Amino acid sequence: MLVADILRLSTRMFRTNRSRTILTILGISVGIGTILFLVSMGYGLQRLILGQITTSESLLSLDVSTGDAAGLKLNNESVEDIKKIAGVEKISPLVSITSQMNVSDISSELVTDFANSDYFNLEGTMLKKGNFYSDSEQDMNKIIISSSALKLFNLDENNCFDNKKIGFTLFLPDKDENGEKLSRNTVKLDQEFQIIGIIEEENSNYVYLPFGIIQKLNVEDYGRLKVKVDYKDNLNPVRESIIERGYMVSALSDIIEQANQIFRTAQIVLALFGIIALLVSAIGMFNTMTIALLERTQEIGIMKTLGATGMDIWNMFLGESFIIGFFGGVGGIIIGMTGGEVFNYGINFLAKAFGGEKIDLFYTPIWFIFFVIIFSTVVGLITGIYPASRAAKINCLEALRYK
């Protein structure tokens, strides 16, 4: 039997049993669509959450601190020493102290971090509104504040950028020769500051000031360093070299890897729920193919009498299974992606109604779309093997007598 004849006979079900065939394909589509919907939601959540805490530079950076090591310091000498390590591209120090921030008639103590402009990229800091300050002299009066601190001072994020009369009193720690804190030295800054950016943070009150300010006060000890390596392959060698110097080192990439493992597990669990729906659909498809076999028993007998071989009958039934599985996969993609768009629209509609930001909760990699089609087709073929095998083994004389 020619390939064209097998294809024509395999697609005849769309003409003779159109409703049953469409319902069978729809059943497969629902199962595939469920898998696509749930897994895409897993990928979307992963992309949404990790995208808010990472930048390309932050994945190549190390967080260096003294930890609990006695007598160990982070200062200019430490920076110069670490710069000599092969693979280190740049270093950004951070000084963290307590200060009193004054806005109009409101004063409150909060954490004050002094950092240069490179630090934000290495830290992976994202702004809710506004811009980052630069290291130029004209930006020495610009600050970045957390949204929680804004509420502390009764500032509105929509017009807080116009306030140019923010003052700071710094509490600098005095230390003895062993590095032990003795007291704190009060320094009132003689300039007024202006908010330039807002960080989305509802649980912590803190503010960033330009690093040049703390440099002018001759503060020698840093709280921690951000060390950026030039290539990903140098991340671990540089980390080991810094650890050998006695410092504590952590990397955002470690946290990201742990998070990815959690998301991969979640995606597998979500996919299992979809596979259950697909199995139910596959049972329905198996039932359809079995009924088709019984209905066409006499037809198969006639075909064999006219010269069709068992392999021809096998190919015809597998062709039907292939078509049902393939179109079930295509339909599943349409159902899954449409469902995701509708669900995403509903979430964003509610978010907008309550003053939230627009988010994209679903993400479907291109490779996963092709995988879903192939997977659906394979499921269709596997489901059709038994009916095809039975059809191929039918005795033509018994088939002609079958009623």
Write up what this structure looks like.
The chain folds into two domains: 196 residues, no CATH class; 138 residues, no CATH class. Helices cover 53% and strands 20% of the residues. It has 13 helices and eleven strands. Strands 1, 2, 3, 4, 5, 6, 7, 8, 9, 10 and 11 form an eleven-stranded mixed β-sheet that branches. α3 packs across α11. The radius of gyration is 33 Å and the shape is elongated. The two termini are 26 Å apart. The model has no long low-confidence stretch (mean pLDDT 83).
Largest sheet report: 11 strands, mixed
Oligomeric form = single chain
Radius of gyration: 33 Å
Proportion of residues in β-strands: 15-25%
Order of helices and strands, N to C? Answer: HHHEHEEHEEHEEEEHEHEHHHHH
What form results from the Cα inertia axes? elongated
Number of helices: 13
Spans of at least 5 consecutive residues with low confidence? none
> How many angstroms separate the termini?
26 Å
Structural class: alpha+beta
Number of strands: 11
For the residues shown, what is the average pLDDT? Answer: 83
Please tell me the total number of domains.
2
Considering DSSP H and I runs of 4 or more, what fraction of the residues is helical? 40-55%
